[in-house]
Write a structure and sequence with these properties.
With 299 residues, the chain is α/β, with parallel strands linked by helices. 52% of the residues lie in helices and 13% in strands. The protein has an eight-stranded mixed β-sheet, with helices on both faces.
C-alpha cells in the first residue's frame, strides 16, 4: 500500500483546497491502486456530497472523510468506533466440534502455505487442528502440506494423487470426530475459475461436508494474492457463485501489493476480508483489522 500513501500525500501537498482537478486525481489514485472504478467513484461521490452539504473545503477534513467512508465499506456501513463495528465477527467457529474450514482459490496464490499459517494461528490459540490434503490434483501437493504438518506436529489426512478429494474430506472429518479435534482445515486444488469440472468438484466437497457435519463449512475462504489486481474481483465472483464464499484471505500484502482490491471485493461483492498474510514465516498471518488497514492508507 506504499504507493497509495505516497501519491495521495503528494496530491495533498500540491493543492491548497479542493477543486475538480483535486477530486479527479484522488479518484485516479484509488483506481490505480486496485480499487475498482465503481467503488472509487462511490467513495469520491459520497465524500463530495458530504463536503457540499457541510461546506467543507479543508483538505485535512476531506482526508478524514475519505477514511470514514473507506472504513464504513469495510465495516458493513458501521461508523468507526460504533457498537456495530466493534461487534463484527472476525471468523466463524462452531459450538459443535469440529469446525470445518475450506480454502479455495486459483493456482499460485499461496493457498497451501496459508493453510499452514492458519493451523499455526489456531495452535497458538490452544486449538487442536487437523489438516486435510484435498488437493489430489497437483503433483507433490500433499507432500507440501505434509511438510507443514510435520513442522507443526499436526495430524494430516491424505490419499494418493488423483484420488477423490471428497473421500479425503470425508475421512478427515471422521478422524476429527474420533479424536475430538477442534478444527479441520481443508486445502483444495488450485484451479482456474473458468474450469467447470474443477468448480463442480468444489461443490461436491461442500456437499460431503454438509452430509458429515449437518451444516455447510463454517468458513469457505478464498485465498487472493494482493498483487493480482482487478482480476481478483472477477475470480471471487465466480467462486462465490459456485460455493458461497464467507470471506477472503489476502496474501502477500507486504512488498509491492497495493491492497485496494479488498475495498472492491467488499463493496461490490459483499465478501469480507478475514485474514491477511504478510511474509514467508509460518506466523505471518493476522486477523484483518479494518481500522488498522484504513489508517495505513493515510499514515
Amino acid at each position: 500500500m506504499q504507493r497509495l500513501i505516497k501519491n495521495i500525500s503528494l496530491i495533498w501537498n500540491r493543492f491548497k483546497k479542493s477543486n475538480e482537478d483535486f477530486w479527479l486525481e484522488i479518484e485516479e489514485q484509488l483506481i490505480l491502486n486496485d480499487i475498482g472504478v465503481k467503488t472509487a467513484a462511490f467513495i469520491i461521490e459520497e465524500v463530495k456530497n458530504h463536503c457540499r452539504k457541510e461546506n467543507i473545503n479543508d483538505l485535512e477534513q476531506i482526508k478524514l472523510l475519505l477514511k470514514k467512508y473507506i472504513l464504513e465499506i469495510l465495516n458493513d456501513g458501521a461508523a468507526a468506533g460504533s457498537a456495530k463495528a466493534s461487534a463484527l465477527p472476525d471468523y466463524n467457529l462452531s459450538n459443535s466440534i469440529p469446525s470445518v474450514w475450506m480454502l479455495v482459490g486459483v493456482n499460485g496464490v499461496g493457498k497451501t502455505s496459508t493453510v499452514a499459517k492458519l493451523a499455526s494461528f489456531f495452535q497458538n490459540a490452544g486449538k487442536n487442528v487437523l489438516l486435510a490434503a484435498a488437493d489430489t490434483f497437483r503433483a507433490a501437493a500433499y507432500e507440501q502440506l505434509d511438510h507443514f504438518a510435520e513442522q507443526l506436529d499436526l495430524p494430516i489426512v491424505h490419499h494418493q494423487r488423483g484420488s477423490d478429494p471428497g473421500a479425503v474430506v470425508y475421512d478427515s472429518i471422521e478422524k476429527a470426530v474420533a479424536r475430538k479435534i477442534d478444527i479441520v482445515l481443508i486445502d483444495t486444488a488450485g484451479r482456474m475459475h473458468t474450469a467447470y469440472n474443477l468448480m463442480e468438484e468444489l461443490k461436491k466437497i461442500k456437499k460431503v461436508i454438509n452430509k458429515k457435519i449437518g451444516r455447510d463449512p463454517d468458513e469457505i475462504l478464498m485465498v487472493i494474492d494482493a498483487t493480482t489486481g482487478q482480476n481478483a474481483k472477477h475470480q471471487a465472483a465466480i467462486f462465490n457463485e459456485a460455493v458461497g464464499l464467507s470471506g477472503i484471505i489476502l496474501t502477500k500484502t507486504d512488498g509491492t501489493s497495493k491492497g485496494g482490491i479488498v475495498l472492491t471485493v467488499k463493496n461490490e461483492l459483499k465478501i469480507p476480508v478475514k485474514f491477511l498474510t504478510f511474509g514467508e514465516k509460518i506466523e505471518n498471518l493476522e486477523v484483518f483489522n479494518a481500522e488498522k488497514f484504513t489508517d495505513l492508507l493515510f499514515s
